[in-house]
Amino acid sequence: MNKAVFLDRDGTLNVDFGYVHNIKHFKLLPGVLYTLKELKQRGYLLIIITNQSGIERGYYTERQYIEFENEIYSFFEDRGVTIDDIFHCPHYITICNCRKPKVELFYKAREKYDIDFMVSYAVGDRKRDLSICNIEPVKGILITNAKDDCYVTVTTFPEILNYIQ
Ligand SMILES: [Mg+2]
Ligand SMILES: [Zn+2]
What we know:
- The chain is α/β, with parallel strands linked by helices.
- It is about 25% helix and about 20% strand.
- The chain is built from four helices and six strands; from the N terminus they run βαβααβαβββ.
- It has a six-stranded parallel β-sheet, with helices on both faces.
């Protein structure tokens, strides 16, 4: 079985300008590359799970999203990090099981990569990114300035390394 770090995208890896859908607006937060490389060294799959309601809201099309997603893979590849997979929910109005805090995409990832939740982590800048931790043994790390006792909280992405074995 494999271990994974499930990563939120906007606000966690890159600056959340709101409905980012262009590589020109894909600005990494400080320390992200270094941290992702370190997680790879530690043997984790890097899997992005992202809500992309901008698709159903009509801000960009599924096709535009997929093009952007491919650019994101290349962006990281060019900088020496392989993102193993990206799962997205395009919904907003449609009731679905994939828009976080729903957890379907985590189960899809587990099935596809034979992931052991016991040794995996979810990292995000909103509690809804960590909802899987309430029902499965995935450990959650919230990147925030606010204090919370449900999760380990950090203020910058690289600090997650202190909590991931
Ligand atoms: Mg976010
Ligand atoms: Zn969905």
